[in-house]
Every structure is written in structure tokens, then in C-alpha cells.
Design goal:
By secondary structure, the chain is an all-alpha fold. It has 15 helices and no strands. The longest helix has 26 residues. It binds zinc ion. The site of zinc ion (ZN) has 7 residues, from loops.
Length: 305
């Protein structure tokens, strides 16, 4: 996970940015994390903006899509882990004899049930770790174990949240089907394609932010007038009657290179978008990229990527 450092002067801003609002102290009620847009806060927006810039995709591209392409977990997850670890440090490392002032300040915060402490209590409780919070001073809760547990638990919740989102949004589901191997890992093509321009085109097509995507940002899917089916990039590339000629010449050029490709395979679209043909080496992929791009360019000749 890459690190983003944001320095803020005001404590209220810090709480606000990681959505540990002092207005909602722990009340014993566990809220559904999905309902309060946990990953929609300012720090995650900055993180997503930076990722979009590095991928070269439009600012309107789905945040989920860019996090998935680059194998990132929102930075607020890490911020929450650090905050919880800081509380652990107060309990275990800040003593009367080594940090007199800090120790007393913490004592007062506990006594008056400071919102910061309440918010961390809420963080533990809402992620099924109330027991760990209550035993935070126990020797079995070591720094290393706690950090690992928090990262795993918070990341899992984020992944579950994303899975639900992908089921409800077709183009995110399509992207999910393209993420071969482990999801939330930087996608293979980003390492293979070394030309920034080419990489950008792939990223735009995959994340549905190219102009080839008929309805990139809405849920309204257009119909293909010629074929009377749902019009999406996959249809344009593999099935549309209008692009038959370009498709045939593409497959011919691929077969001329002696690549054993089953053109009728369902996985073909994934292969094109992942640059992962079976048994294709890195060198061969580099030969195939210009062909794929020329195909995408031909098929989408009336559009600008
Ligand atoms: Zn069509």
C-alpha cells in the first residue's frame, strides 16, 4: 500500500477526514459501514484523484475501478489503523515516569470520555473487535498482532463493500471479471505495457472511461441499433455486425502470427483486455499489443478513446 501524508492543523479536521465524528460517540449500536459512505471522505477522494491521474483516466471514472486496477485499499483504512494503534500505544507505552504530561492528558480523556476515545471504541466495536478493545492492556494483545488484525479486518470490510457494489453495477462487474489472479493487486498489464500512452488506453477501456463505452457513468445502457442487444464495449469488440470486417481481419492477423486462439471462446474479451493469452510470453505480448490497439482503434474508429 502506498502512503499519502496529509498535514492538518486542526484536530476537528483530522477527525472529520477519517469520519470519526465527535458528534457520534460510541453508543453501543453498531452501524452498517456501508450506509454512512465510509470510503467517500475527503482523504479517500484525494487518494482516488491521485490514482486516476497516475492511470491517465478521467476524473469521472469510478473510484472502485481505479482502486482495483492499482490494487489499492483506501488510505482512510490505514489512517484508522494508525489511530487505533496510537490508542494502544497510550495504554502500553506511555507511563507516568516516561511521559508525565501525556500520561495525565490521556487519563483525563478517559475520565471525561473524550470523543476521540469513543470514536476508537466505535471503530473496534463496529468491526467485531469489542473484546480486543476491552482487553487492550492485556499482554496477549501485542503491537504486531493488533496491527495485523486491524489491517486484515478493515481491508476485508472494504472488499465486502466493493463486492456488493460490483454486483449492482454491470460495468464494475465486468472489470471484476477481468481482474485475473488476486483482486486488489496491481493488474498485470500495468507492469507489462511500458508505453504510458498505450497503458492509458488500456486503463480507460478497462475502467469504462473511454468514449468507446456507450454509457460510461450511468446505469442506462444503450441498445445497438443493428443487433438489437445491449450496446457495450464488449459487444462492439466481439459480436457487433457492424464491426465484423475489422474483427475478421484482426483474428486473421493474430492467426498469421501462429497464436493458437479460439476466436469463439468466451474468455477472448478477457484475454484481449488482460493481455494474457494462454502461453503468451512477455515478449509475445509486446508484439500483440499494437495489433490489439489497432483493432480497438479500427472498431472504435468513430470514437476517440
Ligand atoms: Zn451491434
Amino acid at each position: 500500500m502506498n502512503t499519502v501524508t496529509v498535514t492538518l492543523a486542526s484536530w476537528e479536521d483530522k477527525l472529520d477526514i477519517i469520519k470519526m465524528s465527535k458528534k457520534t460517540p460510541f453508543s453501543g449500536t453498531i452501524q452498517n459501514p456501508e450506509s454512512d459512505h465510509e470510503y467517500d471522505n475527503e482523504i479517500d477522494k484525494v487518494h482516488a484523484k491521485m490514482l486516476k491521474f497516475s492511470l491517465g483516466v478521467s476524473k469521472y471514472t469510478s473510484n472502485t475501478a481505479v482502486f482495483m486496477e492499482l490494487g489499492q485499499i483506501p488510505v482512510s483504512v490505514k489512517a484508522k489503523v494508525l489511530t487505533a494503534m496510537y490508542l494502544h500505544r497510550f495504554h502500553t507505552e506511555i507511563h507516568m515516569d516516561n511521559h508525565f504530561l501525556l500520561h495525565n492528558a490521556f487519563k483525563c480523556m478517559k475520565e471525561y470520555s473524550h470523543p476521540w476515545i469513543d470514536s476508537i471504541h466505535y471503530l473496534f466495536a463496529s468491526h467485531g473487535m469489542a473484546d480486543i478493545y476491552n482487553n487492550i492492556t492485556s499482554r496477549s494483545v501485542t503491537k504486531g498482532k493488533l496491527k495485523k488484525l486491524l489491517i486484515t479486518r478493515l481491508s476485508d470490510i472494504y472488499i465486502q463493500y466493493n463486492d456488493m457494489k460490483m454486483q449492482s453495477k454491470p460495468y464494475l462487474g465486468q472489470l471484476y471479471s477481468l481482474t485475473t489472479g488476486v483482486v486488489y493487486q496491481k493488474q498485470t498489464y500495468l507492469n507489462v505495457v511500458s508505453t504510458p500512452q498505450t497503458r492509458m488506453i488500456y486503463a480507460r477501456v478497462r475502467t469504462n472511461s473511454s468514449k468507446l463505452s456507450p454509457s460510461p457513468y450511468s446505469e442506462i445502457i444503450d441498445k445497438c441499433e443493428s443487433c438489437k442487444v445491449t450496446m457495450d464495449f464488449k459487444h462492439l469488440l466481439l459480436h457487433c455486425k457492424n464491426t465484423e470486417k475489422q474483427r475478421d481481419s484482426f483474428f486473421k492477423s493474430i492467426q498469421d502470427l501462429h497464436y493458437n486462439i479460439d476466436v469463439k471462446s468466451d474468455g477472448l474479451y478477457n484475454n484481449i483486455m488482460n493481455l494474457e493469452w494462454p502461453l503468451l510470453s512477455r515478449e509475445e505480448i509486446l508484439v500483440v499489443i499494437p495489433i490489439v490497439l489497432s483493432y480497438v482503434g479500427h472498431v472504435g474508429r468513430d470514437y476517440v478513446i
